[in-house]
User: Which sequence fits this backbone?
């Protein structure tokens, strides 16, 4: 969590120091994001706050609509009293994002995204690793793009995801807090 906090603070410092730039017309971007994952509900009783890494590609169908796809990985320690182990969540995500582009060409662009995830939950302890099946779930999120160079944007984000891992009587329900970067090719 300490490393995640330092990364988020560093990204915010970069946002404060950056100069506005105009958007490029290229239709494809490569995206990366790191952040904290906050489990809640029954899942929050089993896992502690985790860290995540995500990567993907977005096709910008217009200046407003984009179609994204990618892969994500998150790791959580088990809640105290449950033994010495960890959980791993990983899988694919795909969906649509919508940007609210300012008329004046400003460098702050709010966005919203919604999509489908196909994730797998694994539990690891001294006895080994147990993997669940890949299951379908949903994700939604929002954030603000801040253009730091003509092809590079930085994005603080917040999101929600949920899926049924199929291995127990609970859903994996998370709040995601992160910072990402996007490079238009």
Assistant:
């Amino acid at each position: 969590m300490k490393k995640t906090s330092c990364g988020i603070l560093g990204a915010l410092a970069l946002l404060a120091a950056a100069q506005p730039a105009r958007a490029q017309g290229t239709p494809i971007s490569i995206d990366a994001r790191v952040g904290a994952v906050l489990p809640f509900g029954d899942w929050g009783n089993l896992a502690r706050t985790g860290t995540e890494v995500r990567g993907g590609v977005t096709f910008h169908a217009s200046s407003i609509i984009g179609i994204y796809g990618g892969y994500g990985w998150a790791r959580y320690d088990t809640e105290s009293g449950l033994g010495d182990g960890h959980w791993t969540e990983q899988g694919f995500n795909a969906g649509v994002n919508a940007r609210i582009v300012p008329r004046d060409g400003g460098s702050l662009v709010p966005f919203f995204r919604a999509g489908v995830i196909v994730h797998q939950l694994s539990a690891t302890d001294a006895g080994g690793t147990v993997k669940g099946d890949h299951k379908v779930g949903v994700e939604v999120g929002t954030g603000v793009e801040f253009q730091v160079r003509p092809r590079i944007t930085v994005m603080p984000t917040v999101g929600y995801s949920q899926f049924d891992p199929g291995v127990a009587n609970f859903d994996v329900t998370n709040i995601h807090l992160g910072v990402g970067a996007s490079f238009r090719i």
In short: Residues 2-184 form a domain with the Porin fold (CATH 2.40.160.20). The beta strands are 28-39, 50-60, 65-77, 86-99, 108-125, 128-131, 135-149, 152-163, 172-184. Residues 20 and 106 are 7 Å apart (CA to CA).
